Amino acid sequence: MSGGWDGAYEVVELRVHGVSGAAAETLLDHPVVTRVAGDDNAGFYRPRPGFGVSDRPQALRVEAYRWGALTAGGAVRTLSLLFLLPFMLVNLAVWTRPATGGAGGVIGPLCRVLAATLTAAFMLSVVGVTVDIVGWQCVPYQPCLRGRGYLSWLAHLPLGPRLALLALVPIGALRLLWWLGERSARVFEAFPAARGQDRTSGGEDRVDSPGFWNDALVVHRLRAIHVAVGLGVLDASLLAAPVHRHPTPVAYLLFGASWVLLAAGVVLLLRPARAAPDGQGRGPVDLRGIRPLRIGALTLTVLTLLYSAVPVEPEPPHGQLPGYEGAVAGLVAVQAVLLGALVAATLHQRRRSRAVGSSWLSGLATPIFAATSIAVSYGFAAALVYRIADLLDRGDIPNPARLDRSGAPPLEPPVSYRWAALAGLVTVLVVAATTLWRIQVSRRQRRRMAEEIVRRDFPDPPPEALPRRAAVREIVARSAIAEHLGPVLTVFLVLSVVGVTVVALDLIGIGPSELSRRLAGTDGEAATDLALATDVGIYVIGLVGLGIVVLGLFSYRSEETRRTVAAIWDLGTFWPRTVHPFAPPCYAERAVPELAKRVAALADQGGVILSGHSHGSVLAAATLLQLPSRVLPRVALLTHGSPLHRVYARLCPAFFGSPVLTELGERIGWRWVNLWRDTDSIGGPIFSAHRPGQRPRVTGPAGTVDRRLRDPRGITVPPDDTVPPPVNRHWPYHTDEAYEAAVRDLAGRLRAAAGTSPGPTA
Question: Considering only CA atoms, which of 73, 62, 67 is closest in space to residue 11?
Fold first, then answer.
């Protein structure tokens, strides 16, 4: 066969790796490689001629696209995962909506407004630490300053200048969010789309729309709005004190202007980011009102700081910062309303969707991700505010377990944060118990399914191979656990909706301890116990945050941990930032157009087999959907360990649902092979089954795509080996004999298509 390829139609196999990356040498199975295109962040590599041995014919070349550097390095990824996680989750929520064939209805605007409330919650938490706890409560109380030179100098400043100076910290924190979200975005995003992407139709925003992966102007628009919202929250918080204690016409004017600024931001978020389609794909970004909003926000903030810095000598501050606790409770109440509306809108679209049966969580992924973003946001905020309060509390400042001391500040964060801590503790315990319950309940069903698979693969094992067979059965059973965890997230959604709604009780002054007294008539000891329970919740939330950091650090030492973290991270940063501008940059906005350009250039010289492993198969599918129609006859697709159906078609049905995947197969003439294993916990079949262990159900061309690989190849020790064949699970696939057979099969189909359709030859 090799001789028949010499001097024939050249075919390039372009390999795209999955999450957590891989060295180009590993991808190409070659000791020496050279970069032929791209850069250090994302590049195309080929084996260097004259080094190594290959039994492939010259007309069947191999190339690799290495994009792993686009998802950041260890320290940056860990920090981003911790601080930008709520923003990433709410941005992901809009991409998981049910498929209806429409434009998404009100889900998009609701998610954008909800995202703005997360920015407001972030600013309120930083304001609570700096302006309220430090500047308003701690500094005027001398025992709080004893031995703290880094704070005692603030006591020499009048109240107004002190609060204005401390207000610079929230502004710096907002700028830090900007920097983290913008970090290297110029390298990762805003790559121009290739010309000729004319396969688009009306209706729902489609992955094949020209310019789908170029949303730099949308991010620019959202960034201006969110900065204005953050500054508006800061301005209103600073002005609440003078309006409450020493009102003047100027204070009322500035305070009203801050609310006008916030209202303007909400109005702009409710409007579509893009204008009507212009016939070439999605319409241009609507930037009207952004420049006046930016100028107004900066001007108002400067005026607010100047007004707050005017030295006025009122009576010493007491209690909490005026209006701060009500602002936190009111914001949570707004989020509860938005979350309820999002659940209702998703259920309404779910009834219109035809893919509910095959979608993950029955189409409720959008409100689940939104609720998760709120929970994580308030978990981090409560942990931050309470940890600072505990740091400043030397034991002689009152708390719910101690009597008030004359002249001492409460040094107590808003009651809403106590609710968040208590709700977080209950949610963690209930979700953990539900997870263990689902694992235990589904174990028998998963083992039964796994037993059928191993019995079919290894029908008559010798007695010495029975332990190996049992181990393989357990691996297969564990790989199917994700399909049984849907109820866990449903329970989490219910608890989140209830928890966020109950926080609204703080608007009428009812906190956990007070509610306990009113409802159960408990005494002070029970109230103290409840306060201690909320303290435990704060520590649990802090441990969860610390666990995320530790997980991020260990992910670079353990391959299995790295793969798990990278899978979550790469899923969250795969989609454009059309909801929250401070989410981590979207690496696909570079990878997909770059891949499309490279494939089109290679197709001008011959055939291309786009081979995607794991998440690389998603990039490959998105790339093919962006290719012009003239290129498609010279392209084939090879996917292996692919989550296209198991994760993306079910989690993001509006963008990678079964109809889209079927259309993709039709565009490339069904020159598509998908390799999968029952031991793979991430990849799976695309058309032939809906869950591991099911028999194929699809007929026609789609039924020929999926090819199951037996894993391991055997459970006995081969005559020429000393150990049984390994269980490969998710990696590698490209070293399997079936992979090479699939490459040659697809190359043959491309040669056959080239013989009947015009195209260059090597």
Answer: 62
Could you give the CA distance from residue 409 to residue 321 in angstroms, rounded to a whole number? 11
Nearest to 753 by CA among 617, 592, 632: 632
3-state secondary structure 340-373: HHHHHHHHHHHHHCCCCCCCHHHHCHHHHHHHHH
* Chain centroid to CA 651: 12
Query: How far is the C-alpha of 88 from the C-alpha of 585, rounded, in Å?
Result: 9
Cβ of 426: how many Cβ atoms within 10 Å?
A: 15
Rounded distance between C-alpha atoms, residue 556 and residue 479, angstroms: 23
Distance CA 506, CA 504 (A): 5
In the block, tokens 């964060």 appear at 413
Query: Which residues contact residue 155 at a Cβ distance below 8 angstroms, ignoring those fewer than 6 apart?
Result: 139, 140, 142, 145
Exposure string over 215-251, b if 16+ CB within 10 A, otherwise e: bbbbbebbbbbbbbbbbbbbbbbbbbbbbeeeeeeeb
Tokens 């913008």 map to which residue?
182
Residue with tokens 């972030």: 122
- Average of per-residue pLDDT across 290-304: 94
The amino acid that residue 750 corresponds to is: L
d(CA 403, CA 182) in angstroms, rounded, equals 48
Q: Alpha-carbon distance 269 to 289, whole Å?
A: 11
Cα separation, 57 vs 228, in Å, equals: 60
The secondary structure element, H or E, covering residue 63 is strand 60-66
602 in Cβ contact with 6 (< 8 Å)? no
Task: Name the residue type at position 32.
Answer: V
The whole-number pLDDT of residue 383 equals: 79
Q: Helix, strand, or coil here: 269?
A: helix
Q: Beta-carbon neighbour count of residue 257 at 10 Å? A: 19
Q: What is the pLDDT of residue 450?
A: 92
Most confident range, picked from 138-152, 295-309, 360-374, 402-416:
295-309
The closest alpha carbon to 236, from 218, 254, 249, 222, belongs to 254
Query: Could you say which DSSP state residue 133 is in?
Result: I
Q: Which two tokens stand for residue 609?
A: 């087999």
Phi, psi of 544 (to 5 degrees): -65, -45
558's CB contacts (< 8 A; 6+ apart) are none
Which secondary-structure segment (H or E) carries 613?
Answer: strand 607-613
First to last CA, the chain: 17
Model confidence pLDDT, tens digit, residues 661-681: 999 999 999 999 999 999 998
Going by C-alpha positions, the residue among 753, 594, 745 that lies closest to residue 60 is 745
Share of the chain residues as helix, strand and coil, in percent rounded to the nearest 5: 60, 5, 35
Q: How many CA atoms lie within 13 A of 482 on its CB side?
A: 18
CB distance 45 to 21 below 8 Å: no
H-run or E-run covering 14: strand 11-16
Place of tokens 């794909």: 281
- Can you read off the two tokens belonging to residue 336? 């509860």
Mean pLDDT of the region 94-114? 84
| CA distance linking residue 371 with residue 674, whole number of Å | 35
